[in-house]
Design goal:
Helix content is 44%, strand content 20%. The protein is of the alpha+beta class. It has one domain. Strand 1, helix 1 and strand 2 form a beta-alpha-beta unit. The longest helix has 13 residues. It starts with a strand and ends with a helix.
C-alpha cells in the first residue's frame, strides 16, 4: 500500500535541495515538497501558523 507523504521545508533552508526533490519523488511517488516562504530549517518555529495550516490540510485529506 502506498501512502501520501508531504515534506515541509522553509524556503530559506538548503536542507532539501532540488536534487533531493528528485530523489524524494523517486522513493516516495505519492509525495510532495511544500516550501513555506521566509522560513529556515526550523520552519515550525519560524512560521508556526503556516506550518500548522499545511499539516492540518494534509491531515484533513
Amino acid at each position: 500500500m502506498i501512502f501520501p507523504l508531504d515534506f515541509i521545508r522553509g524556503s530559506e533552508s538548503d536542507y532539501i535541495t532540488a536534487n533531493d526533490e528528485a530523489a524524494i519523488q523517486q522513493q516516495f511517488s505519492q509525495s510532495q515538497v511544500i516550501s513555506i516562504p521566509d522560513a529556515g530549517h526550523w520552519v515550525h518555529a519560524a512560521a508556526p501558523e503556516e506550518f500548522l495550516h499545511v499539516v492540518n490540510a494534509f491531515l484533513d485529506n
